[in-house]
Amino acid sequence: MPNPAKPYRFWIILASLFIVLDQLSKLYFEHNFEFLERKNILPFFDFILVYNKGAAFSMAADAGGWQRWFFIVLAIGASGFILYLLKKHKTDTFFCFALSLILAGALGNVIDRIAYGHVIDFLLFYWENWQYYFPAFNLADCFITVGATLIIIEELFFSKKKSKELA
Length: 167
Prior knowledge:
single chain; 17% strand; four-stranded antiparallel β-sheet
């Protein structure tokens, strides 16, 4: 028996709450840290204020400015498709939760690109005294990563079960 459908607005409100959380965290670091200022939290984790004009891992950051608009259009297009999927799959709570996370992450970073021309990043993980590090990121990036991971988990472990239930 399928899950009862949550109203479409539920997923929009949930994504909106995640966006607010993302934007508040970015504003905190923007107003309380200087650019490149670092504060050590754990032996492998710092808060740092950096700006990313590119995509993941600063890909295309030095592309001359066109990338800002490209990533805005790309994220808005992806968000439109996610909104369509949220309506179409409203009985699939797990999938809609994952989509809401991805939607929030995409729009959270779009807000930065429109408002500042770059994305504000502030979470920095490293190991071996900086010999290895993961590029700084933000909550929007976390939302996208967790949402995508949940979709992969659902596809790997639950899609066969759903197919058998439908048969």
